[in-house]
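task queued by scheduler; priority normal; single chain, no ligands, no partner chains; default sampling; output format set to structure tokens
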Amino acid sequence: MSNSPTIPQQKIDEALPDLQASVSMCFHCFDTLLQNLRLSYPQLHSVLQAQNKNEKPSFLADLGKEGVKCPMFVTWEKKREQSLDDVYDLRGCIGSLSPLPVATALTKYALISALQDTRFNPIHPSELPMLRVAVSLLVKYEPCQTAYDWTVGIHGIIIQFTVDGTSYSATYLPEVAQEQGW
């Protein structure tokens, strides 16, 4: 068993260390979900306006150049009912550790995490007012020297191990450890 995780490093763009998720990327995730729900729930047609399919998403300007690829995750959270303060619970989180074209993968993972995360039922239109979304672009991989060589809230972690010949892995985005009080 290796001490450092095997991380897919398929030519992550050198200009990416400064790339950050933007508000317009989060808006795009909501727009994508709304348009999908509009198609799935005909009663929403009068409420939700159809999006022009030929229109380029506004977040593309945030990327700085075309064809940017990086690993990413889209996380949906739902405000807890009867909560006096803003407490949110995970509602869906799916992404990829392989570099993908941000321009298309963001749309794909906005829907997959909202509608196909097997830990949850698909998001229903009635939940929309209670949702928030986060986009995580993973651009600065660093191998750890020890199990304690990372900072809560700054680094995400990928854990890989083998027990009795079976391999296991888990991925925790940078915000997870902080949210969970590690």
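post-processing summary
- Helices lie at 23-40, 102-115, 174-179.
- The CA atoms of residues 72 and 137 lie 5 Å apart.
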